[in-house]
Amino acid sequence: FALSLAIEFECYLIDEVILVGDQDFQRKCRYELLEKREDRSLVFASHSEDLIREFCHRAVVLDQGRARVFDEVEEALFVYSNL
């Protein structure tokens, strides 16, 4: 997390790190990675449907080693929930 703040990357790969820790840490992660750098590309790996709906415009669902790309987040969430 600290390295992500020290270097301005063009694309960030973020897992569920923003869901751990206390509320202050979660708030800082959310601001620093998702709001302050909203002009950057982001690959966001999460099981949280709420965060995916809020921050994602497209989605990829992995199923048995295969990736399916969806332009509609709701469709991806539907497919994922029915695996």
Fold and architecture overview:
With 83 residues, this protein is an alpha+beta fold. Helix content is 41%, strand content 22%. The chain has four helices and four strands. It has helices at 2-6, 23-35, 49-55, 73-81, and strands at 11-14, 41-44, 59-63, 66-70. The strands form two sheets. It has a two-stranded parallel ribbon. β1 (11-14), α2 (23-35) and β2 form a beta-alpha-beta unit. The chain is globular, with a radius of gyration of 14 Å. The model has no long low-confidence stretch (mean pLDDT 88).
Offer a concise description of the structure.
With 83 residues, the chain is of the alpha+beta class.
Largest sheet: 2 strands, parallel
Chain oligomer state: single chain
Amino-to-carboxy terminus distance: 31 Å
Approximate shape? globular
The count of DSSP E runs of length 2 or more, i.e. the number of strands, is 4
Topology (elements, then pairings):
Layout: H1 2-6, E1 11-14, H2 23-35, E2 41-44, H3 49-55, E3 59-63, E4 66-70, H4 73-81
Parallel strand pairs: 1-2
Antiparallel strand pairs: 3-4
Name the features:
globular; alpha+beta; 4 helices; 4 strands; 83 residues; two-stranded antiparallel ribbon; two-stranded parallel sheet
